[in-house]
Amino acid sequence: MKFLTFRGGIHPPEKKDATANIKIEKAEDPKLVVIPLQQHIGAPCEPVVKVGDYVKVGQKIGEAQGFVSAPIHSSVSGIVKSIEDVPIATGNEAQAITIESDGENQIDESIQPKGNIESLSPKDIINIIKEAGIVGMGGATFPTHVKLSPPPEKKVDTLILNGAECEPYLTADHRLMLENPEDIVYGLKAMMKAVGVQKGYIGIENNKPDAIDTMLKAIEKEDDVQVVALETKYPQGGEKQLIYAITNKEVPSGGLPMDVGVIVTNVGTAAQVAKTIKTGIPLIERVTTVTGKAIKNPKNLLIKIGTPVKSLIEECGGYAVTPGKLILGGPMMGNAQHTDEIPAVKGTSGILVFDEVEAELPNPSNCIRCGRCVEICPANLQPVYISENSLSNRMEQTEKYRALDCIECGSCSYVCPSRRPLLPSIRVAKNQIIAKKREQKNK
């Protein structure tokens, strides 16, 4: 089998051994959940419950505001204790609904199976996904119903499932492919029908041969779905990199996958689509890898949305040593946290805790013009020049160097021998460019 790939990229240590062979375990039910109303790209939800209300599992508690948004549902049954701003994983604060669980897990009466792929129309499938609050579960959290609703002029003919899981440490998608392959294929087929495409691909890195074999068996009777083995290289799971590796199509600068007729989503998202169609349960739980040197017993846990990160770490035996850094997501693109008193959300693919040695920050020195960041950049950018202009506050120049095309994979910072703050400075530039464009649009 040929292993497909893209230009550039890096090979960081995989660090997956701690959890790759550990089956998914259902996490203990939390006594309290804190469910933010902003768990997706787009407009935050508005609460549709009030303090003192009794809510049930799967009940809608946050209503989407606008097309690019996704509703929020309760993951437990119990009493709404508060609706207030709380710290969230992005480093900001957001309004959240805190629910004290009664331990009964009473299912809301609205939760009913939705039928099957054959009986559902494309519009039905998209509406089911929308109402279930399903978003990209690889970490990006873009509302899935929006992805599946391209403008009429965008002729989409291919749907790709991302099973690469190229971030070090994370194994949640790997275990999902091993333990729940049928639902992944079912969800893929449902989304293919929703968009009206005839070609579906499941891309998996070749460091997961067992997942490749399992998914190949799962698609034996599917003529329009293909499992594609990818070279193990970071960031193989990036949308544009995945598209190029599988289809040889290049998404244009400033463009979207739909511009080349492709939609990309995650294997976890597909499994949730299947679960929702079969049972009616919205997105209220997900598989999360809890790992790192500072975790006593690393695990892959099926967690309820809103569970405090601290309690999930305690379920894994707590801290093995003094924690040096806590990251939600993977080490390359995840968000470092200042506390474990935050909730796990729809995009929490991993909870990673480094020890104090791993967490030490390098001291940057002057750029030596080695060009390594340019050589490995998967977006074909010149990170050194974007960074230099950003650090000198020349934001117009960063835009000329296509700062907005940066996928924030962190490969440039990883390979820099001078340990320059390449990615952080590029992020600053992107944020300022976007803010300026938004300001000009609102004038």
From TrEMBL:
Where would you find this protein in the cell?
Answer: Cell membrane
Binding residues annotated for [4Fe-4S] cluster 1, in chain numbering: 367, 370, 373, 416
**A GO MF term:** 4 iron, 4 sulfur cluster binding
Q: Which Pfam families match?
A: Complex1_51K (PF01512), Fer4_7 (PF12838), RnfC_N (PF13375), SLBB (PF10531)
List this protein's GO terms for biological process.
electron transport chain
Q: Which Gene3D superfamilies match?
A: 3.30.70.20, NADH-ubiquinone oxidoreductase 51kDa subunit (3.40.50.11540)
Q: Its biological function?
A: Part of a membrane-bound complex that couples electron transfer with translocation of ions across the membrane.
Q: State what protein this is by name.
A: Ion-translocating oxidoreductase complex subunit C
Source species of the chain: Natronincola peptidivorans
Q: What is the lineage of its organism?
A: Bacteria, Bacillati, Bacillota, Clostridia, Peptostreptococcales
